[in-house]
Amino acid sequence: MSFVPPDHPRFLSLMYRERLVEKFKEGVVVAQGLIAHGRGEAFDYILGEQTIPPALEAEKAAAALLKLARKPVISVNGNAAALVPGELVELSKALNAPLEVNLFYRSEERAKRIAELLKAHGAEEVLWRPDQELPGLSSERRRVSSKGIASADVVLVSLEDGDRTEALKRNGKKVIAIDLNPFSRTSLTADITIVDNVIRAIPNITKFVKAMSEREAEEALERFDNARNLREVVKWIKKWLDAKTSELL
Ligand code: ATP
Ligand code: MG
User: Which range of residues forms the domain containing residue 211?
Assistant: First the structure.
């Protein structure tokens, strides 16, 4: 790993880059995943690299939906596994929900590596050997497990592909998406869109899952409106841009 000076103003961001590069070398992350992370960083920058209030609301609603689900499943790709392996395991335990490896650039070897990484962080069971296909989807992401996504009613996804979000919805699933781009097809299609970095979003969801009663979960869901929430997110981005613009003057 390269040396990152701890007093560097972008220390955290640089550390996460180091982590991704390391996991790229280990065959957990693909090169395309590094590019996707860059797009995420750009959106994170204009959120001020923080959980903005509408994102926190969405995280609460997500926790509520996961808690009330009959069968929630957490879908994991290479970047998410590289960035927050332990946090994903903790959420999975808090919900008693399985982790399922689902990859756009799938190989047997990489799926297994990701499962091993999650197990090294304490996961008991990771679904990584799909035995079914999601109808209406042609990418490798169509391959799902009958014990996981295939029979789930709620699926949590991050760094997702718009095609699969649409396919999951068509197959009657509720989708919670963590996506820093509020304008992506994933963001516009999901039932609950969390515009936040997966690094902050996963621990926040877990905190809510642990603290929330069933009644509070029902209330949080009743209050939540995804389109309204996305509009709030865009308002925050505009506010951030205005503040930065006035620094230029
Ligand atoms: P869509 O297919 O939904 O229209 P896209 O094709 O624009 O999306 P992809 O490359 O398929 O985007 O997926 C990457 C998405 O993940 C981007 O929207 C990016 O902003 C987001 N992203 C990248 N890193 C993170 C992260 N650490 N946390 C949350 N979101 C992230
Ligand atoms: Mg896409």
Answer: 53-230
